[in-house]
Automatic annotation (TrEMBL):
The lineage of its organism: Bacteria, Pseudomonadati, Pseudomonadota, Betaproteobacteria, Burkholderiales. It comes from Diaphorobacter ruginosibacter. The keyword Transmembrane applies. Keywords: Membrane, Transmembrane, Transmembrane helix. This is Uncharacterized protein. The chain crosses the membrane at residues 7-30, 50-71, 91-111, 123-143.
Length: 169
């Protein structure tokens, strides 16, 4: 069992490394697109390049946050996600990144829709998706905090794990 656990930890480390490398690649691409826009002056077309660079930068942040979450939750904490507090924290980290990425993508699509009205439906759908995600997340947190009241020891376990992670950093 310890061997299988070590293999899973190694695979999680590999996944976190791959997400980090992808994040760095996306950061490079975003920087190149932004630099290209500033090199050509700041005209109307360059505005879209800057906004596109922002979208790529947001994707880079998403990849980096996922890598950090994998490392902290699966490698450093070395815990099993079973209590309501741990589940809420784990899912919230992903949802924060996802909602921000979708909101930035909605902003980019809205800018593009100002030139191409065929994209207006896409922009509206993305904005609606962000709203639905936020609403669903709010309901999840509300229901989860109710479950935490039934299991106060899970909150204490999560807090003790947090102090262990802080000590390792």
């Amino acid at each position: 069992m310890k061997f299988a656990h070590a293999v899973f930890v190694a695979v999680h480390c590999l996944m976190a490394t791959m997400f980090t490398l992808c994040a760095l690649g996306l950061l490079w691409i975003a920087g190149a697109k932004g630099w290209e826009a500033f090199q050509n002056g700041l005209g109307h077309d360059e505005m879209f390049k800057v906004v596109e660079a922002l979208g790529i930068l947001a994707a880079s942040v998403v990849a980096l946050q996922i890598a950090q979450t994998i490392l902290e939750e699966e490698v450093m904490r070395d815990t099993h996600i079973s209590g309501p507090t741990r589940v809420r924290r784990f899912l919230s980290r992903f949802l924060v990144v996802l909602v921000i990425a979708l909101a930035v993508e909605a902003l980019i699509t809205t800018f593009k829709a100002s030139q191409d009205t065929d994209l207006m439906l896409n922009a509206s759908a993305l904005i609606g998706a962000v709203g639905l995600l936020l609403s669903g997340w709010g309901v999840f947190i509300h229901l989860n905090t109710s479950a935490e009241k039934l299991e106060p020891e899970a909150m204490e376990d999560a807090k003790s794990e947090d102090s262990k992670v802080q000590d390792r950093k």
